[in-house]
Amino acid sequence: MKQIAYTFFLLLPFFASGQQKPDYPQNYFRNPLDIPIFLAGNFGECRPGHFHSGVDIKTLGKENESVHAAADGYISRIKMEKGGFGHGLYITHPNGYTTLYAHLNDFVPALQKYLKKEQYEKKHWDVDIQLSPDQFPVKKGDQIAWSGNTGASTAPHLHFEIRNTKTEHPLNPELFGLPIIDNVAPVPVEVVLYEGDVYTENSVALSLAKAGAIYKPVKTGEKIFAINRDTVQAPVGVIGIGVNVDDYMNGSDNTIAFYTAKLYMDDSLQVQVTLDNIGYDETRYINAYADYKTKELNHKWVQCLFKLPGNHLDAIFSNLNNNQGRLDFKDRSKAHKINIVLEDDKGNTSTILFYARPTVSNEVAVTDDRIPFYANKPNEFHSTNIKFSLDDKQLYDDIYFEFKGDNYPEMIDKKSQARDVDRAPVYSDRFQLHHSYVPIHHYFDLQIKPNKTIPFDLRSKVVMMYSDDKDEDGRAAAFSENGWYKAKVRNFGTYWLDIDTTAPVIKSLQKNGANLSKAKQITFEVRDGATSVKSYGGYLDGKWICFEQHGSSFFYKFDERCAKGKHKLVFNAEDESGNEATYNLNFTK
Hints:
Blueprint: H1 4-10, H2 12-15, E1 39-41, E2 46-47, E3 50-51, E4 55-58, E5 66-68, E6 73-80, E7 87-92, E8 97-102, E9 104-107, H3 109-122, E10 128-130, E11 137-138, E12 143-147, E13 157-164, E14 170-171, E15 187-195, E16 211-215, E17 218-221, E18 224-226, E19 231-235, E20 237-249, E21 252-256, E22 260-265, E23 268-274, H4 286-289, H5 292-298, E24 303-304, E25 317-318, E26 327-329, E27 336-343, E28 349-360, E29 371-373, E30 379-382, E31 386-390, E32 399-401, E33 403-404, H6 414-419, E34 431-433, E35 439-448, E36 462-467, E37 472-476, E38 478-479, E39 485-491, E40 493-499, E41 505-508, E42 514-515, E43 521-527, E44 533-540, E45 543-545, E46 548-550, E47 553-557, E48 566-575, E49 580-588
Parallel strand pairs: 18-28, 19-28, 42-49
Antiparallel strand pairs: 1-4, 2-3, 4-13, 5-12, 6-7, 6-10, 6-11, 7-8, 8-13, 9-12, 13-14, 15-16, 15-20, 17-18, 20-21, 20-24, 20-26, 22-23, 22-27, 23-25, 27-28, 29-32, 30-31, 31-35, 33-34, 34-40, 35-39, 36-37, 36-40, 38-39, 41-43, 43-47, 44-45, 44-48, 46-47, 48-49
């Protein structure tokens, strides 16, 4: 089959068909920084629980680069949060778009002064402030802030978004003509075949039950790749194909995401994926688009070129065949030509070419003790001491639900037992609800009944603990009717009830009585063993001051509210179970 490369070039005009790039205004938005754009991340990258919604622009590995308005408009929103975007600014523009600038440090003085006034009036550091057009108008190029590393950021950079103002959907900023140099084509890393139509009598389809095969593409020509010497043995039936792809740009060695992927079988387009225009209300469908199990167990992102029945992220899919992107391999007598065309948003393309011959029979052993759960339908489970129900939007695919109770000793590993030696006794059995590598779309109510009486004065201290076989955490559980305890959860895995009477631990990074005249801030580290810190506050000489949270760090930057002299600072923290801790710090400024 050495004619494969030649066939590709003959089909180039045909492969150019499909969904066209949107007609966004070009060169309306400027580079928001004063340095050339090099990307640490781009639009549509797979991230835990979401698609990346903008571009991450590198800031030379440091903070406090000047950040400028990308176009005329007005600052319409200030949002401060401990995670997520950290310090964020939004600018609304007259042409129907809004830009977001995130992970910032301080804003320009007038804006910073206004923010602080609002925080002290509300007595909250984390605020979300809507602004009117006449408060802070800006011209293209005006400085608005300095770059930083706040929120859920792991290194200094600027997160920049362009959104449709009306829908609030983030759009791909690279399609707006930003000055980005990129002539590097995507590089396929793996091709995965999935058994997508596995049926036996009275059973359920298992679209992502297992990978039929994983193949490493090998370069055979200019931007052309083959797998398994150009022919693979495929399952008989309907199969799905997934790809693990790295893309790059000039001057940067980190990977980014492709823009489109087109899957052809026998020269006919079966599906196109386009990573643009993904709303925040849709972004969690990343868990249906990417192979969640492979991500959880092997830490790799395989993107599926087919649509699961419970995946309602419709906008990124186009030209879907009747099998929602899956391929019909029921005819054993025929080998099918497969072409996968990968393109970035600068038009650089790579193609994977191979033949697939259906030869492998699918046989699935079905036992009577497995419980079918269906996508797009309500599902429920009720055992003696545990119960829950899922609505029709919870599952992406049909599954056989598996359950284990506490009489399965393999559920409690030695590490978990060692951690629990000094803790209060467990107040319920441990229940394994299916597998943590099968995703749930949104929160549902899980109810557990304790196996021993919980004293009335400890009811408010009950927590529902969770383990995914790697980590443990908990959340407050509320007393429900007939002795059940209820909490909102969003994962399959192992759950049990416990009691939390331990307050958060506050550690001061300053010595009591210290002279802090040369210090810039006061910092506390606060950690909670079972749940998380629900609320906190700092009081300087009896008056509230603005403490910022970044992860487990809580800090107050010295300002005009702390004059020279001796001071007493009281810092308190409360967890989800109502356990409180207080730290008194005396210092001199």
